[in-house]
Amino acid sequence: MFTEYKINNPESFETPEHLIFEEKVMHNIESIIDLVGGRDRLIPHAKTHKSKDTLSLLIDNGIKKHKTSTLNELEVLAECKPEILILAYPITSVIKAKRLENIVEKFPETKFYTIISNTFHFDLIKDIDNLSGIYIDLDTGMNRTGVLKENVPDLIDYIFSNNYKKLRGIHAYDGQTYGVVSVEDRDIDTQNTLKDIRQVEKLVKEKFLMNDVEIIVGGSWSFHFYIKEKDIKLSPGTWIYWDISNIKQKELPFQIAGVILGQVIDQNKSNDTVTIDIGAKAVSSDPATENRLRLIDKPNSKLIFQNEEHGIIKLNGESLELGDYVLAQPGHACTVTPKYNRAIKIDKNGDIAGIITPHARDRI
Question: Could you please report the per-residue DSSP string of 160-215?
């Protein structure tokens, strides 16, 4: 029915509906394994799918190390028994430290790690006995979380003074590369990041007499620039479902697997607009309005306004009528998932193949 997306009987859906095309998901899994050259180097972020269904599929395909942002993601996804789970978000309260400790004790078959970027974080987690270890979270230019390179010596001195034996390595998310379409510019940025990481690695090795400092680096816009550094683990997120923001990276082979099925609910011919039922509650609302979705097979159309349940589309010469079904590729896949309590899985024939539940969509 739609180019590259076959859906049988769309009238059987009560729109808006989040659809995941399983053949495209498998294409993305096979593509990333081929691109990276193996499975063991991958530590993908679970924030995009938040699902035991998708995590189990990844584990079945040999990707057994994963990263999360919330404690609920950590606890729910641990039920799938991955080899490693990393909480890539700092612990900042006693109640959260206690919950982390309980999760670690509840799932002894999985190794758990977390990140720290200051002494405050470290003091909260240093006494969690069964925690497998920590990573120093390095700020390489995003200026969101992480320790600045010049403050690393003081932090590692503090960790060392506490006789802590579980420092595992360095974590860095170079999110400043997001949206930088130029491959050359991203390459320059990641080379600067790599230089900072290697300097911190040297400090850690010298202070702790460590030979093996594990390094986890990269997001969806940068991970592939580190592939040639064979000792580095790679940590993309959005690749599993992909979206219209990330697809601007022409050098990557991923396909948009997660889309939203909607319907035209009203029209205003004098304004050359139609209204669809994909409002701010149904699609990513963090990009600028016109970048929140793209209608498949309607390349000139543009989202110009949204309310909670309504999206107004300027047709710009495209044709849509009342009752027509539309398929929207999201601007940001990661913030679509928690808007729905389920996604419908569509097989290669266009039939419903099951349900994907975002089990960790809640914070608690």
Answer: HHTT---EEEEEE--GGGTT---HHHHHHHHHHHHHHHHHHHHHHHHHHT-S--EE
